[in-house]
Amino acid sequence: MKILLIDDDPDILFMAAIALEKIGKHHVIQASGGMEALQKAKQELPDAIVTDYWLEDLEGTELLKQFNSQPETQKVPVIFLTAKTEPTLIRQLLELGAKGVLAKPFDPLKLSGDIQKILAK
Hints:
Blueprint: E1 2-6, H1 10-23, E2 27-31, H2 34-44, E3 48-51, H3 60-69, E4 78-82, H4 87-95, E5 100-103, H5 111-120
Parallel strand pairs: 1-2, 1-3, 3-4, 4-5
Helix pairs in contact: 2-3
């Protein structure tokens, strides 16, 4: 599966990408910001998008709206991987069309399986 992974923290981006590639055997495209992610999503046409909520250039709600408005990405499932896990925010993201929310810190050994469980719903 091709996953677009978005996080502005280079350490998190590196660790999550390694976990998804080595353990999950996924093809990972990385982006460190929302605008870069929007462009890469159009070019790469990922099977899923995994993103942090807080990015330097776009926050998660706006990024999700952008993905939902583009024909190339509106059907691609978006999963948030974030430390921002307040129930009201999670509910808002799900109502806006996010497929799921995973909490940071995450277990690299379980990340791929957790993503697969959300996508199977």
